[in-house]
Specification:
The protein is of the alpha/beta class and about 150 residues long. It is about 30% helix and about 15% strand. Strand 1, helix 1 and strand 2 form a beta-alpha-beta unit. The longest helix is centred in the first third of the chain and has 13 residues. It is globular and about 55 Å long. It starts with 14 loop residues before the first strand and ends in an 8-residue tail after the last strand. The model has no long low-confidence stretch (mean pLDDT about 95).
């Protein structure tokens, strides 16, 4: 008996809201990446995008453990000669806290066009308000379950 594959029209996508206040960045990012991929669903297939939408609020209040706040560096290159840029996690959390969560989650998704499509289903906001009330997002568990 062949494994049934879901068609694009059969995939039901829910909206979840996650409050990042006081949560550890890595644990939060792994939970969000799992939901974006759809690994929590029985219809999960690694080569299809069956995941749900995720809205992350209070990104500025995410927590980094150890000395990561001072030692962790975010690096990117502009493409020009000498265009390497570096910013400490402490500075990045003050200026662009959304990017900290976005980059952590994107690092846990596949590195191809499927992963980029999954990342587009995540919305991250600095504060507690978001414009996605019309989608009626369900609240995800406050703390990540440890199994």
């Amino acid at each position: 008996m062949p494994t049934p594959l879901p068609k694009e029209t059969e995939i039901l996508r829910k909206w979840f809201i996650v409050d990042a206040e006081g949560q550890v960045l890595g644990r939060l990012a792994s939970r969000v990446a799992s939901i974006l991929r759809g690994k929590h669903k029985p219809t999960f297939v690694p080569h299809l995008d069956v995941g749900d939408h995720v809205v992350v609020v209070n990104a500025a209040k995410v927590h980094l453990t150890g000395r990561k706040l001072h030692d962790k560096l975010y690096r990117w290159h502009s493409g020009y000669i000498g265009g390497l840029r570096e910013v400490r996690a402490e500075t990045m959390l003050k200026t662009h806290p959304e990017r900290v969560i976005e980059w952590a989650v994107q690092g846990m998704l596949p590195k191809n066009r499927l992963g980029r499509a999954m990342a587009k289903k995540m919305k991250v906001y600095r504060g507690a308000t978001h414009p996605h009330q019309a989608q009626r997002p369900e609240t995800l568990a406050a703390k990540v379950e440890v199994r």
